[in-house]
Structures are given as structure tokens and as C-alpha cells.
Amino acid sequence: MKKGLFITFEGIEGCGKTTQMNLLAGYLKKEGASVLKTREPGGTKIGEKIREILLNPDNKKMSKETEMLLYGASRTQHIEEIIRPALKSGKIVLCDRYADSTLAYQGFGRNMGVSFIKKACPLSLGSIQPDLTILLDLDVKTGLSRIKNRKGGNDRIEKEKIAFHNKVRKGYLKLAKTSRGRIKIVKADKEIDEIQKEIKDIVIRKLRSKE
Ligand code: TMP
User: What is the pTM (predicted TM-score) of this model?
Assistant: First the structure.
């Protein structure tokens, strides 16, 4: 059924995943691959509306359960409308954040627990597993200093305390340990080109293993 390749990009705020994903997309397209670039929360018209609710700093009252379900709702729509059809038609799908974000941010950051989320709401984690996940790992202080002066100010999640972001980072590293090789950690405190080269090597290896 699934012919394409599903690659997700993960990491804390300011880790550079969007830049790296865009560079990889450019490279793969130049090599002749059929690539679809997308993001979560969002990726669809409905998902982008959910994104606005999730990230709006005015929504201070949002409960962690509502938060988890909204990320899950955006993901479900995204899978059915965009990801599954793209994979079926053989595309390489590059997605800026996916289910590991829910486990790291809501599971660890919000202390909901990975096993709770997996048991209570498996649908929120999506019915498709990535083939490969690039985790850009960076020190939280460095990441937050990079996003401090973002145009339009910081969003509801970016505005969380440093302790929250530290839990998210540790969560990601724990997830990587138990991912049976799906999550590849790439150190993000290096030059953009150096990081991109590492990512390209990982992706090329993955593509070759599928041939
Ligand atoms: P972005 O700005 O990197 O696109 O991500 C949006 C924010 O949403 C980011 O702070 C991480 C957060 N997030 C979650 O908390 N849970 C999720 O499941 C996803 C996809 C993102």
C-alpha cells in the first residue's frame, strides 16, 4: 500500500529543523525526486485553523487534554487529506513535526505520560508511522535565544518556562532510545551546511535500503 517514504523532522524550539527540511527538499527535488513538504500542526486548511487556536498566546486557559486532542485532530485531518494520498502515489513526504512532538511536548513537557497518551488516545498519534525521523538536538538555552526576537513575538508554546522546554528535550532523547533506529539524532549546534550533510547521508542510506 505505502510506496513513498515518510520522513519527519523533530526537535525543540529554535533547533533549525525547518531550515534543514527545506534544504533537504531542495536537494531531493534537484535529484529528480517527487517531494511533498508539509507541517504540523497544520498542513491542511482545517489544520491551519487548529494551529491558530493552539499557538495563540491568548488561549492561556487551554487544558493539556484539549491541547493534546487538538494536535491529534490536526494530525488526523493531515493524514487523511495529505500524507496518506501522497505516500500512496510514491512521494517522499517531509513533515515538520509529527507524533513524536505530541509525545515530547504533551507526554513529557506537560507530564501527561507517553503510556497514558498511547492508551487513552492512540488516534492522536496518527495511523501512519514515519519511516525515518531526524531529531535535531540542541541545548535549550541556545534554542530559545535563537527564537527570542521572532517576528510577531513568541507563540503560546514558545512562551513556556525553560523547565518545560528542558523536559521536552529530555523526552525527545528518551524517545530516540526506544525508537529501534527510526529516530536519528543529529547535533544541531554546528554550521548549517555541516548539519545538512549529515542529514543527507542519513536520508540517502535510507533510500538505498528501500531499493
Ligand atoms: P512549530 O512552530 O515548530 O511549527 O511547532 C508548533 C509548536 O507546537 C511547537 O511549539 C511544538 C508544538 N507541538 C506540540 O506541542 N505537540 C505536537 O503534537 C506538535 C505537532 C507540535
Answer: 0.97
